[in-house]
Amino acid sequence: MKSSFKAFLLINGILLTGTSAFAQQLKDTIFKRLELKEVYIQGYAQSKHPGSAFYQSSSLSSIEDILSKIEGVSLIRRGSIGMEPVLRAFSAGQINIVIDGMKFFGACTDKMDPVTIYTEPVNLKSIDIKYAGDGMAMGSSIGGTLNLKLAEAELNADKKLSGTVASGYYSAAKAIQNILALDYSSEKWAMRASGVYRKAGNYRNGSNQLVDFSQYEKTNASISGKYRINENSTIKADLLLDDGWNIGYPALPMDVGFARARIAALTYKLSTPQKFLKNLEAKAYANSISHAMDDTRRPLVPIHMDMPGQSNTQGAFVQTQFGKLGRHTLNLKLDTYHNRVKADMTMYPANSAPMYMLTWPENHQTVAGLYLQDLISIDDKSHIDIKVRVDAAFSKITDKMGIDQFAVLGYDVSKSSNGILKNINTGYTRYLGQRFTLYASAGYNERLPTTSERYGFYLFNRMDNYDYIGNPDLKNERAVNAELNLLFSENNFSFKLSGFSTYFQNYIIGKTISGLSVMTTGASGVRAYQNIQSATISGAESSLNYQFANRHLTLNNTLKWIYANDNNHKPLPLISPLKSITSLRFVHGSFLIQAENEISSAQNRINTEFGERASKAYSIQNVRGTYSFMMQKYNLDFSAGAENLLDKAYYEHLDWGRMLRPGRNIYGMLTMKF
């Protein structure tokens, strides 16, 4: 651990040395870069973040491609798509993943369908990431919030009709990807429509082996309409449809037959900057997710089974921004949602009648919350940011079979479960001269157990080879967090260094239970979720962006490191090692070329009780280029590149089953804009 931390300090010391001085940056811009981790999607908005262009290799990049390059973000990989986002070692119910502020809950008991799988970059304007208590506006959470902000139709744009068409091919999986986006704009109303089609076969890894069950196919379509009611207000409607099928998960014993999402929202916005009520936004939304795990394509299956799941959520929120009251600026949000989930399993043993059980008994959960933010200006060099949130949560199992299943285990789940969640976070910003900004924050947060943690019934975990059952008596996880950020910023150079730590009480983790028979053939035993006394997660991150040589060259670097223990000083499972991504980009006129190096140290701090094994260090190289030109009235971009240029056989620590990643992946694509 000490050697990794020394390496972290050494690398950042080298990168910080030798920079030149340029003109002063605006203070509010510095604070935005510091407080917000908002990555704008290339081609649909101009980025506010100095390194965001490096997060997206092309217009055909997936959400996962972008997230994997952001400091503080990791991905649990079980297949080629549907990777589970991790924010600073927090995942699943510890974080909020929302689309345009709308709450979502996956329908898969094996976490094959994180919310990110149901969107595409062409749908989005930006990805906004807030860590720990800074993200509580979207709901109670311990680890933060990932908000996928939808792209909007633009009123009174320069062009009445514009659009983008792109198509690409990737060699490793013989994959094709196509997108279409159309925008219509007038003074009174505007519309935006987009579509995506992706198809990939089984990919070849760095050992030139075909990885079975790594294929997938999906489509995505969205339409957004906006109408100007008057000078100060608009109304917007959004519809998003996402369908995936034949999605392979080589690290799991089952694949996905289909995964479907239907998302609809209606939003009203009012802007009156000269009045006390400056901004108001009201949204009503609904989403439905259907998911079915499937093992019919797998050879030598001991017992064939079907495992469908369904999740439906309806919600609404109103948020307002008020004008200044002396030194105070207030933001208020009221929100509520109702979620219903259910998942079951039917097993078909040879020469026997089918067996049926509920893996998620039908659970109805309603949450209503109040969020208040007070930004207090102390003087022109410092301010305090206080955020408070209270949620009332109600949960109830509604089917008799689910109640009976848990009665066998000695639990009475016939009554509703109610609770109050409390969150508070305080941040202090100080401008240290013209170039440096300091931001410190501390807070207390709580979160509800997930449906799997509370009501899951014999859910098999391939990583540790145990069946898991829920615990209806779980206490809410509680956490105290602290963070310190230092930012240096000038015109062509910015650097951010962050350190953070979280102390848990009632940390939720699986513990082995004796005396219960396994349900899954070959499972090592049965585990139930329990609260342990405490746990800690600490870490550090940095990001750097430097433009030089008359801005023809740009250097970008991100670095992330995590250290975590339980109350017995044993490592928590699934903690990423030290990782750094460095890119150098050259731009001249219509030509761009970029080289990228990704380095990860070995991870030897593992928890063998949960099936972890040490992972090796690796280093891979990527290169890509783009040439833009005009053909009649159309703008054309031709892009090509190679990922894992040296065909390295490698995997990341969070890749289940140590499944090797794709080998050399050569791609090319053509984009037309009009």
TrEMBL record:
Residues 203-645 form the TonB-dependent receptor-like beta-barrel domain. It comes from Daejeonella rubra. Gene3D superfamilies: TonB-dependent receptor, beta-barrel domain. It is found in: Cell outer membrane. Belongs to the TonB-dependent receptor family. The keyword Transmembrane applies. Keywords: Cell outer membrane, Membrane, Signal, TonB box, Transmembrane, Transmembrane beta strand, Transport. GO terms for molecular function: siderophore uptake transmembrane transporter activity. GO terms for biological process: siderophore transmembrane transport. GO terms for cellular component: cell outer membrane. The keyword Cell membrane does not apply. Its main location: membrane. Residues 1-23 form the signal peptide. This is Iron complex outermembrane recepter protein.
